[in-house]
Specification:
Structural class: alpha/beta
Number of strands: 12
Family: Belongs to the ABC transporter superfamily.
Organism: Pseudorhodobacter antarcticus
Shape: globular
Order of helices and strands: EEEHEEHEHHHHEHEHEEHHEE
Distance between the termini: 35 Å
Helix content: 25-40%
Radius of gyration: 20 Å
GO molecular function: ATP binding; ATP hydrolysis activity
Membrane topology: Peripheral membrane protein
GO biological process, one term: peptide transport
């Protein structure tokens, strides 16, 4: 069965004054229809650049220099810009972290959504408004017809994020990329939106890549998880496998830093150091300076191990505990 989204060796680099910096390094994964992939890692790990690379939104001095981006079997990297514009929104859509940066503040919500509908489908304005109302209904917005007449600033943060998700769903795309889509929301609203996203994914069969730094979020949302570090996928498996039996020391460190996994008042374990500069990566494994399992062999490039359905890029994969 053809995956809704498949990346093969995706590589994105940026030209700097000191030379090329590789922000996404040979990234490969697949997302089947109706499944959610959590793409997890610290800030600077390459998650968002991966999302922008999928949609062809990398601007100079950046470039996607290698790999394939297959959506329903079609390689987006082989399309001309005009063809790619037709694919965005219709086949692959994106939900950004801050909807106030993507919604036009001087246009009513309904006008923006109707415009997005009519870009890809020939229909009357009333029909486009009806499509927009149905989309708002689908994401749990009450009194959707009234919300269409509102300006973005008249809506709460949770409502604006629901509008952004509804806009991504307007054309029933095969793939949605959600980049930290609930990070700025309070926990209760975040939980509601995650539940709506899970329901919509199950109902529509849309494949979702949920980009986040928060493993606690994807543990309840995602079917599969890819953990990124310094532009590479360092661990991949089902959500249950990665959460219950992490194989990479970096994944273990991320999980140990989740407050809910510790008794109140207990000091949280920390991963020492910080994410390395991509222009100054250490030799061998980029996690080596921060890793409690590091040894001399870690100065050489780490191998990929396949263990019980998980893959891990590490010289010292962890055993089940």
């Amino acid at each position: 069965m053809t995956a809704a989204l498949e990346l093969k060796g995706l590589t994105t680099r940026f030209q700097t004054r000191t030379g090329h910096v590789t922000a996404v390094n040979d990234v490969s994964f697949a997302v089947q229809k109706g499944r959610i992939l959590g793409l997890v890692g610290e800030s600077g790990s390459g998650k968002s650049v991966t999302g922008f690379s999928i949609l062809g939104l990398i601007a100079p001095p950046g470039e996607v220099c290698a790999g394939e981006v297959l959506v329903d079997g079609v390689d987006l990297r082989q399309l001309r810009e005009e063809e790619m514009r037709k694919m965005r929104g219709r086949k692959v859509a994106m939900v950004f972290q801050d909807p106030m940066m993507t919604l036009n503040p001087v246009l009513r919500v309904g006008d923006q959504m109707a415009m997005a509908v009519r870009v890809h489908r020939a229909m009357s304005k009333p029909a486009a408004f009806e499509e927009a109302r149905k989309a708002l209904d689908a994401v749990g917005i009450p009194a959707a017809a009234e919300r269409l007449r509102a300006y973005p600033h008249q809506l709460s943060g949770g409502m604006r994020q629901r509008v952004a998700i509804a806009m991504a769903l307007l054309h029933s795309p095969s793939v949605i990329i959600a980049d930290e889509a609930t990070t700025a929301l309070d926990v209760s609203i975040q939980g509601q939106i995650l539940a709506e996203v899970r329901k919509l994914c199950d109902q529509t069969g849309t494949a979702i890549v949920w980009i986040t730094h928060d493993l606690a979020v994807v543990s309840s949302l995602a079917d599969d998880i890819c953990v990124m570090y310094a532009g590479r996928i360092v661990e991949r498996g089902t959500a249950q496998q990665v959460i219950d039996y992490p194989r990479h020391p970096y994944t273990r460190g991320l999980l140990d830093s989740i407050p809910a996994r510790h008794a109140p008042g207990t000091p949280l374990p920390q991963i020492p150091g910080s994410t390395p500069q991509l222009s100054r990566l250490p030799t061998g494994c980029p996690f080596r300076p921060r890793c409690p399992k590091a040894s001399d062999i870690c100065a050489t490039p780490p191998p990929t191990h396949a263990i019980d359905g998980q893959t891990v890029l590490c010289h010292h994969p962890l055993e089940r505990s």
